[in-house]
Fold these 2 entries.
Entry 1:
Amino acid sequence: MAARSKALLWLGAAAAVLALLLIPRLMPAGDEDAAAAEAAAEPEALVVDVKRMQPELLVERLATTGTLQADEQVEIRSEIAGVVESIHFDEGVRVDAGRLLVQLQDEELAAERDRARFRVDLARQREVRQQDLLAQGLISQDEYDTALSQLNVLEAELRLAEAQLAKTSIEAPFDGLIGFRFISVGAALGPQTPIATLQKVDPVKIEFAVPERYAAEVRVGEAISFRVKGSEERHSGQVYAIEPTVDRETRSLRARARSANPDGTLLPGAFADVELTIREIPDALTVPAIAVIPELGGRKVFVVEDGQAVPRFVETGIRTDTDVQIVHGLAPDERVVVSGMQRLAPGAPVVERTLEPAEGAAP
């Protein structure tokens, strides 16, 4: 019985070996070729966008915030106490320099001026007579000097009376827009009583802050652009003054610019988004920010060499909203991969598709 079982085992093993030898011969020729092709297939090439490195103008801009201010602004007040006799302006209108705004009652001051004039006339006549007597030797020099001194004092009092009288006419100190009035006819005014505000709004000032690290880059004469809330229109201006001290609390430097405002659409007090050109590099190499891959030891990009993706470590510089300056690691005419980087491996075959710059795109 044992001998019979052993024989059956040997027979089964021989049949299995024979089946293995016959299977390749029984397979269709097409299936055998497909299996061989699949085993020998190379990795499929990836289609990627590339950018050819060419020197171009790179503008570094600083975005900050600011506030619009009137070019000139004053709160109209009376220099002397008095009662309002008449008002000669409408609220919210433009007035010219020297225009009469408010007239105070001036009867008392006019009388003071007239009295001073009479005294001056009398003193002047006396000085002339004393001068004739001095020439004849009939009075001393001291007597003439006394008469001359009295004349000078009275003339000074007359000028003072005329100055006080002139202050009853309150005039606009410069061209501008006058605001709401806070007085009425018959009101008693004092030096502390506000009458109205007057603002010169063409041009307007833009005051903004610059971080301390950019303090050396901001200069008088630099151009700025800005936009106010509620409007998409951008306006231009020019820096005319820089605060010489960095603010200790904010660690920033304050600067002011002026911008033309002929139509009066820019209102003092408005919030502004300001852009300031820090510097310009005429021959910079830049790549889209998405092309730069951060690594533990630095940053890298993929360049195309002989149809393959080759990693290249680079040193970056200025960043804009969309691009990054490459300071070291790339040369002009090299082609940098700008899409599909997450699927690339060193040496992976690629098919290039050149990325064309947008027509009319600003650098």
Note: Residues 100 and 171 are 4 Å apart (CA to CA).
Entry 2:
Amino acid sequence: MRLFYEWGIKQLKKKGEELCGDSVGVSRHPDSIVLALSDGLGSGVKANILATLTTRIAMHMLENDLPIGEVVQALSETLPVCNVRNLAYSTFAIAQFFADGHARVVEFDSPLAMFVRNRAIHSVDYEERSIEDKKIYESVMDLAYGDWIMFVSDGVLNAGIGGRYPLGWGWEQTARFFEKNVHSNLSAQSVAERIAQTVSDLYNGNPGDDVSIVVIKARRKQVATVLTGPPADPEDDSELVARFMKARGLHAVCGGTTAKIVSRHTGLPLEVDLETMTPDVPAFARIEGMDLVTEGILTLTMVNELLQAGTDQDDIKYKTDGASELLRFLLNTDHVHFIVGTAVNPAHQNPELPRQLELRLSVVREIAEKLRERHIEVTLESV
């Protein structure tokens, strides 16, 4: 069993502050993800600096494969305590989630993590120990497909204080809300945003504390292969199509000639849906067993422009043109493998055409760069 961890982050600034006094860091590695959440004492710029320092130290050490125990030791020895309030200048929660389901969570002075399995809150078993006179809570967990974990800062638990919840929303109320608002069809980001909106409502739109929410969803990895363009040598058509068809996960074909090659070598009919044509984007087509079939360079170029403009899922939620379909396809995967044929299409070398149409490979490379910025793994091969 190999788990894939999807994460969602949402933060709210305390009313009247320019910066959030919390800091969150998450990074992906080949077999794990690393998380650090810190809440700086107070709010504003000073709190932000202290919290950011904490997360950067933790992330740097974890990313250099130092044992999590050493990271905790270093943070405990580094973080000072306010002599007036007898509080740490910043709190932290750090965690590592491994592909085999093993996870380790360590927390200091931060709200304990919330764990949901099968739509029900489950307790997390912590061991308490002391490092540099600081009480550290540590847990080792075994996760499975469908598990959810949430980390929050104090601002979440304090929501509603003095109003609907005289003592604040609290851990129990927050955990029950989390429990009722997760299911397999939701993304980690959408859950984080739903909880943040509820917190904002409890504060009447004016948060009385900095708010940070990090949601982790354990699931199967979604992989996809995109075949675009014929190979340089037509003799390779048959082998390329066979390899493409055997690739695990989702399959997309981009290009009219490419689609004809796939149809010919699989014996499956190619049907163009002319009703999906728009003034800007050519129609897409259908081949049995393919998840998506679109036109080639024009559609890819439009997808690249959408990514460069920062377009996200919500922006194209109700659009059904080929470029929107392809962009949704790409954004809904965790790992995309592009197979780019390098056969020259004379029409695309016309000097009167826009420069971005000249080379398919350069457009795909730009798409790959933008997808990586969105934490999507991308590999690319040219044939």
Note: The mean pLDDT is 89.
